[in-house]
Amino acid sequence: MPWTNQGGGGPWGSGGGKGPWGSGPQSPGPTPPDLEEMLRRGQDKLRNFLPGGSLGGRGFALLTLAALALWGFSGFFRVEPDELGVVLRFGKEVREVQPGLNYHLPYPIETVLTPKALRVNKIDIGMRVVDDLRRGQTVRDVPEESLMLTGDENIVDVDFSVLWKVKPTGVGQFLFNIQNPEGTVKAVAESAMREVIGRSEIQPILTGARQTIETAVQDLMQKTLDSYRAGILVQQVQMQKVDPPQQVIDAFRDVQAARADLERAVNEAQTYANRVLPEARGRVAQITQAAEAYRQQTVAEATGQTARFLKIYEQYKKAPDVTRERMYLETMERVLGPASKIIIDSGNGGAGVVPYLPLDELMKQQRPQPLPRTSSQPGGQK
């Protein structure tokens, strides 16, 4: 028996016209349209449109052809330049189509999905870019994502971005193997970065190991996503900011400055050592060579004197008197040669001092003396 809003107040009992939860009187809602009346009006309009005012076999044929034509034309679809089309036949992937105008069998036989497979997507981790009407774009830090523990038990604040896109041959995997692509890429990126940072020390992370860390994170992300069969290609990992936590950054900068001073002092000491050591080695080599030359000279002179003495001794053994006389004369020549000489005749009836002609001194006086050298004066005068 249908319910009416008269008399007893409906199926929830009488109560003065209260609603189903007893919340007070409710005004009656809009009356639903009558389906039979709508069908009758549609038939009347169709009779007026068709020739003769009635639907015959020809009219039904025309309607059927028009419906089939519209159904066939509904299979045309357009794929945008940054999209790829995936055609599904009864829910199963059958082919992929490129950007442009394409066709598939009309619904419900085939349907199409058009993901943004050719667009490069960017995900920021550890930071968020916020649009401000007065100051433009500002970056907001997210500590729960950026604070990470290093291998030497230090905390570092890492903000980085990941550029990714859908693999050209993995659109089907991208659509059907993962439910939330952005969330999956973000979770994998954060996990990979924490693993790489956890294997590294803080000093290389803050100085010169950024390129190595980016490459390691990209490789680890790609390996993990391939194991998920996600159909995602990681193009690049960019480390935006790598700093100690804000609470200790001043102390850390002091440590860095002290370390820089230490390196500078070590470099200066090494420069001094590089300058002094070659000079000392050169002096050592010079002294060693001089000593070696003196040794060789002394040995050579001693050897020569020994050979000369042996030769003289051989001649002495053959003619002792002659050799002795010759040695005496050669010795007197060496002794009296450079000395001034006065000849005295001390024999019987001698005249005493014997005058002689000093030919060597006369020859020295007759030698032409060199002219004195004159220095040049300014202005070309001498």
List the helices and strands and how they pair.
Layout: H1 35-49, H2 57-73, E1 76-79, E2 85-89, E3 92-97, E4 100-103, E5 110-113, E6 121-125, E7 127-132, E8 136-141, H3 143-146, E9 147-149, E10 155-166, H4 171-176, H5 181-198, H6 202-206, H7 210-228, E11 232-243, H8 249-318, H9 320-336, E12 343-345, E13 352-354, H10 359-366
Antiparallel strand pairs: 1-4, 2-3, 2-5, 6-10, 7-8, 9-10, 10-11, 12-13
Helix pairs in contact: 5-7, 8-9
Protein traits:
alpha+beta; Tetrahydropterin Synthase, Chain A; four-stranded antiparallel beta sheet; three-stranded antiparallel beta sheet
Describe the structure.
It is a single chain. The protein contains 10 helices and 13 strands. By secondary structure, it is of the alpha+beta class. Strands 6, 9, 10 and 11 form a 4-stranded antiparallel beta sheet that branches. A hairpin with a 6-residue loop joins strand 12 and strand 13 (352-354). The N and C termini lie far apart (149 Å).
Shape: rod-shaped
The number of strands is: 13
Query: Structural class, judged by helices and strands?
Result: alpha+beta
C-alpha end-to-end distance: 149 Å
Give a short overview:
The protein has ten helices and 13 strands. By secondary structure, it is of the alpha+beta class. Helix 8 (249-318) crosses helix 9.
